[in-house]
Known about the structure:
Layout: E1 14-15, E2 24-30, H1 34-39, H2 43-51, E3 61-63, E4 69-73, H3 85-88, E5 93-96, H4 102-111, E6 127-129, H5 136-154, H6 162-175, E7 179-184, H7 187-190, H8 194-200, E8 208-214, E9 221-226, E10 228-232, H9 241-244, H10 252-266, E11 272-282, E12 294-296, E13 302-304, H11 312-325, E14 330-335, H12 339-345, E15 350-354, H13 357-369, E16 374-376, E17 394-395, H14 404-413, E18 421-425, E19 429-430, E20 440-441, H15 446-457
Parallel strand pairs: 1-6, 2-4, 2-5, 5-6, 9-11, 9-14, 10-11, 13-17, 14-18, 15-16
Antiparallel strand pairs: 3-4, 7-8, 8-11, 12-13, 15-18, 19-20
Helix pairs in contact: 4-5, 5-10, 8-11, 10-15, 11-14, 13-15
Bound molecules: ligand 1, manganese (II) ion and zinc ion.
Amino acid sequence: MQELxxxxxxxxxxxxxxxxxxxxxxxxxxxxxxxxxxNELTPSDQQWLNRQSFAGKTGQIAWLENxxxxxxSSGEDSLSTLGHLPYQLPEGVYRxxxxxxxxxxxxxxxxxxxxxxxxxxDRMPAKLILPDSANASExxxxxxxxxxxxxxxxxxxxxMAPSHLQAEVEALAETFAAEVNTTVGDELLDLECGAIHAxxxxxADGPRLMDLTWGDLDHPKITIxxxxxxxxxxxxNMKPSGGMRWMKKDMGGAAIAMGLAYLVMSQGLPxxxxxLIPAAENAVAGNAFRPGDVLDTHKGLTxxxxxxxxxxxxxxxxxxxxxxxxxxELIVDYATLTGAARGAVGAxxxxxxxxDDALAQxxxxxxxxxxxxxxxxxxxxxxxxxxxxNIADLVNSAASPYAGAVTAALFLKRFxxxxxxxxxxxxxxxxxxxxxxxxxxxAMALRSVYRYLAxxxxxxxx
Length: 462
Ligand code: BES
Ligand code: MN
Ligand code: ZN
């Protein structure tokens, strides 16, 4: 694991524990101890708190006469405990009077994010000096990993085309001395990736597959895959305006895979990591793939196109087949795959599919602890009939209006051999602002998987 240096704290809204600037003190008051706290105060402070309707609940902030700031906290710690503070407190430097949990401190850091590529932020976030007890490296790098994903998602398709995504993967590889190989355009056909090629070939910036590897060859192999559709117009089955509006985020799966890779590498987890990012813009031109076309895939299965808007599973199927043929210990994929998953669990829960039920349950538990909700969904084989084709091995989209997220996952499953596999169908975007979760791109299901990997494979000895 690399040592942190002071520069690493830039853009995290956190400061190292040994910072010498005089801070404003912050005291967390838990609702259970609120009465005791009140009773110790001077009558005039008591009156002040009354006037500010402070009751020690999460989200409440109040000031005492001595200049100390108090923060309410009810229930278990989460990103909401401190996540509102970076932009609700005045700019400046703060320190907590007591220790705080990892998830609470993380909330502060994640709440400090602003996407400032196209306009300057109107203010700086308030900054928190970390308590001595905090795991600064894990905090800082979790924030950086998340903000990497967020920046990639928030960047419009004009500046985040497949070639830009390639440059981002290469920059990530360079930071951690990882290796990366990219196959572009017609060369995808030599790799037998006919599906990635078909989805992306109509765009001015051609389709490609990035293949990053890192770590000791003797360590357990983990492969992560992310859907990198840099813009999803729907192709010839074009989306209506409302459906197309936010499709710059359709590389959210790729962005989260990259964030996870960043975190794994920054913490030096003893695994052999492989990350596959298929990238394409689903565009329209004379050479676009069409409904009715039949594609050759990496696995050798043929796929009849029912709908060019079901393009994500086409990118993924080639990448998953490549991943699976190497028989890693685990494959994890992330994709903004279906509207149906959003209908099922909403925009704030990651829909999780796995061929290993125990793994799915474990990931859900990690999701709870990390305030990163993921929920198992049925990989119900009996629905396989919905993705049958009369002229090919599979269709890319079911004629049925039901269980769209399930049939998409069943489609992917056909490209996985006997390897433990988890598929996340995620929104990758906060449609409303919450503490620690600004509106816009979000690295959903990143921490659940990281924590699982860190727990299962353990940190490297120092
Ligand atoms: N990228 C979309 C899915 C999506 C839409 C995710 C909105 C999150 C928010 C995907 O490529 C898509 O268009 N899926 C279609 C599949 C259908 C044609 C079978 C969908 O969900 O409507
Ligand atoms: Mn689509
Ligand atoms: Zn898509």
